[in-house]
Write a structure and sequence with these properties.
Strand order of the largest sheet: 1-2
Strand content: under 5%
Number of strands: 2
CATH class of the largest domain: Mainly Alpha
CATH architecture of the largest domain: Up-down Bundle
Helix content: 55-70%
Radius of gyration: 20 Å
Low-confidence stretches: 47-52, 289-299
CATH superfamily of the largest domain: Rhomboid-like
Number of domains: 2
Mean pLDDT: 80
Shape: globular
C-alpha cells in the first residue's frame, strides 16, 4: 500500500497510481477557495499514532492468523501450491458431512484455511486493502464482528448449496466487508464527500462484479460463499447505518450482531433437519477416509 506524499496516510489498494489521498485533495481545494466551508472531509486514519497506542491493527492480526495456518499446513505436508483435501479437512475446511453432523466450528475455521500459495496470496492482498479501509471507518471491534459474522454467513450458504464439497478461504468474509461498506456508504453512514464516495463505490462495485464473474467462469471457485458473505455484509452494514451509526452505540450494534447469530443458529437447525441429521455439537460420529478424497472436489473462496 502506497502512502500519500502530502500527509503520509496510507492510500487504498484500489487507487492505483494515485499519490495524494482524498483528504489532502479536498484540503488543498479548500485552501484555494474551491470548496464550501461547511463541506465534510473524508474520514481517513490519521498518519500519526498516539504515544503508547498499539501500532498493530486487527487487519494485521487476521492476516497473521491466516499466514500462520498456511505455514502450519506447509510444514505438515509436502507442497505449497495445492493442498490435498485430507489436509484441508484436517485443518478445518467446511465439509458438509462433518459440519452438519456436529462440527459446526468448521463454519468459522474454514475462513482461515486456504488451498495453496496463490489462493492465500490473492485473498490476503484483498484483505490488507479492504480490511484496512473497513477497520478505519467502523472501528476495531465492530470491524472484527462484521468480518466474523460475514464469514459465518458465507460458510452457511456454502454448505447449504453444496454440502458434499469442502470449501476453504477468507474471501466470503472479504466479500462481506465490501457489502457492508457499500450499504453504509450508500445510506450515508460516513462523512465522505461526493467525489470520494463515487470513487470508492466504483472500486467496491468493480471488486464485487469482477470476482463474481471469475467465480462463475473458473472451475472450483465457491461463488455461493462469495454471495453469502456479500448478502450478509450488505444486511449488517445497512442495519448498522440505520440503527447504530455512531461508534458510541455499542449496545445497539451488539443487538444487531446477536440477531444475525440467532438467525444463523436457526438456519443450522433447519439445514441439519433437511438432511435428516439430529442437531448435535461435537466431534462428528462419521469416520471419513479423508486421505483418499480426490482433490478435484475442493471449492475455494478465491476472493
Amino acid at each position: 500500500m502506497a502512502n500519500c506524499i502530502r500527509c503520509g496516510r496510507q492510500l487504498s489498494g484500489f487507487t492505483f497510481g494515485r499519490k495524494i489521498c482524498q483528504w489532502c485533495v479536498q484540503h488543498e481545494a479548500a485552501q484555494r477557495g474551491e470548496v464550501r466551508e461547511d463541506a465534510r472531509q473524508p474520514v481517513m486514519r490519521t498518519p500519526w499514532v498516539r504515544q503508547g497506542e498499539s501500532t498493530i491493527s486487527l487487519t494485521q492480526i487476521i492476516f497473521g492468523i491466516n499466514v500462520a495456518v498456511f505455514l502450519a499446513m506447509v510444514l505438515s505436508g509436502s507442497t505449497v501450491m495445492d493442498f490435498p483435501l485430507g489436509e484441508l479437512i484436517r485443518f478445518g475446511a467446511n465439509f458438509g458431512p462433518l459440519t452438519l453432523s456436529g462440527e459446526w466450528w468448521r463454519l468459522l475455521t474454514n475462513v482461515f484455511v486456504h488451498g495453496g500459495l496463490i489462493h492465500i496470496a490473492f485473498n490476503m492482498w484483498c484483505l490488507w486493502n479492504l480490511g484496512a479501509l473497513c477497520e478505519s471507518l467502523y472501528g476495531t471491534w465492530t470491524y472484527g464482528a462484521i468480518y466474523l459474522i460475514c464469514g459465518l454467513g458465507a460458510s452457511l450458504l456454502s454448505v447449504a448449496w453444496h454440502p458434499g464439497g469442502p470449501s476453504v478461504g477468507a474471501s466470503g468474509a472479504i466479500f462481506g466487508l465490501a457489502g457492508a461498506l457499500i450499504a453504509a456508504l450508500k445510506l450515508g453512514e460516513f462523512s465522505v464527500p461526493r467525489p470520494a464516495l463515487s470513487g470508492v463505490m466504483r472500486s467496491l462495485g468493480a471488486f464485487v462484479v469482477y470476482n463474481l464473474i471469475f467465480g462463475f467462469v473458473l472451475p472450483g471457485v465457491d461463488n455461493s460463499a462469495h454471495i453469502g458473505g456479500l448478502i450478509t455484509g450488505v444486511l449488517v452494514g445497512a442495519m448498522i447505518a440505520l440503527l447504530a451509526p455512531r461508534q458510541e452505540q455499542a449496545g445497539r450494534r451488539l443487538v444487531i450482531f446477536a440477531i444475525f447469530l440467532v438467525a444463523f443458529a436457526l438456519g443450522a437447525v433447519k439445514l441439519a433437519s433437511y438432511h435428516g441429521l439430529p442437531l448435535r455439537f461435537g466431534k462428528s460420529p462419521f469416520a471419513l477416509p479423508t486421505e483418499n478424497l480426490e482433490p478435484r472436489g475442493t471449492r475455494r473462496n478465491a476472493g
